[in-house]
Amino acid sequence: SQQGEEDPQALSIQEGENATMNCSYKTSINNLQWYRQNSGRGLVHLILIRSNEREKHSGRLRVTLDTSKKSSSLLITASRAADTASYFCATAGGSTLGRLYFGRGTQLTVWP
Amino acid sequence: GAGVSQSPSNKVTEKGKDVELRCDPISGHTALYWYRQSLGQGLEFLIYFQGNSAPDKSGLPSDRFSAERTGGSVSTLTIQRTQQEDSAVYLCASSLRPVDEQFFGPGTRLTVL
């Protein structure tokens, strides 16, 4: 399966701390995307990192990709209560370009 | 500009009835996707449209599910003879190209009684 798998399943931290979530996958990819979801509805796109990239930043977010280990990490710095949500990684590529394979997600809770 | 929109936001139906779910992608996006999310199965790919090419239907769970994309824009997902296991949130997404970011709509929550 190409499906990404996030680790940990749940993460609970205090405001101001950093949160790190990891994603592992099994096959070659074209890109890997991170999403946030609140209240089980629409997914908000955070960052896309392509297979030839190693690191990307967006505001307080930093994503790394290690294709040799087939893994990615999402770091949220200086977390806020509003960051509380489920975070998903999704991979695209191989013979099914365009189709995203999602992991089960990490539930992040940030306490004020 | 406007994001992906979906309608209805909620749909409650009786087992055995047909339902239609609508998706309006971001203008200019050539690729359109349907996924569904349920507690037991997580986020599952259903079908993918790219331009005028034949859609990738490999994720449709049964022949009760079908989808169309008219004029390269609006898409309709149809579920015939709904079953209780069809209850889920159905999410639509679009992207400029298949290799680009996919932007999701708010979803349609389908409940089959």
In terms of DSSP E residues, the strand content of chain A is over 45%
Low-confidence stretches of chain B: none
Contiguous helical run count of chain B = 0
Low-confidence stretches of chain A: none
Q: Distance N terminus to C terminus of chain B?
A: 37 Å
* Structural class assignment of chain A: mainly beta
Structural class of chain B: mainly beta
Write the CATH homologous superfamily of chain B: Immunoglobulins
Overall residue-averaged pLDDT value of chain B: 93
N-end to C-end Cα span of chain A: 38 Å
Shape of chain A: globular
Domain count of chain A: 1
Q: Report the CATH architecture of chain A.
A: Sandwich
Structural key phrases:
heterodimer, A: 112 residues, mainly beta, Immunoglobulin-like, six-stranded mixed β-sheet, five-stranded antiparallel β-sheet, 0% helix, B: 113 residues, four-stranded antiparallel β-sheet, globular
Please characterize this protein's 3D structure.
The complex is a heterodimer of chains A (112) and B (113). With 112 residues, chain A is mainly beta. Chain A has strands spanning 5-7, 10-14, 19-24, 31-37, 43-50, 55-58, 61-66, 71-76, 85-92, 101-102, 106-111. Chain A has one domain: Immunoglobulins (Immunoglobulin-like, Sandwich), CATH 2.60.40.10. Chain A is built from no helices and 11 strands. In chain A, strands 2, 4, 5, 9, 10 and 11 form a 6-stranded mixed sheet that branches. Chain A has a 5-stranded antiparallel sheet with strand order 1-3-8-7-6, with no helix packed on it. Chain A starts with a strand and ends with a strand. Helices cover 0% and strands 49% of the residues of chain B. Chain B is built from no helices and 10 strands. Chain B has a single domain (5-108), classed as Immunoglobulins (Immunoglobulin-like, Sandwich), CATH 2.60.40.10. Classes of the chains: A mainly beta (112), B mainly beta (113). At the A-B interface, strand 4, strand 5, strand 9 and strand 10 of A face strand 4, strand 5, strand 8 and strand 9 of B.
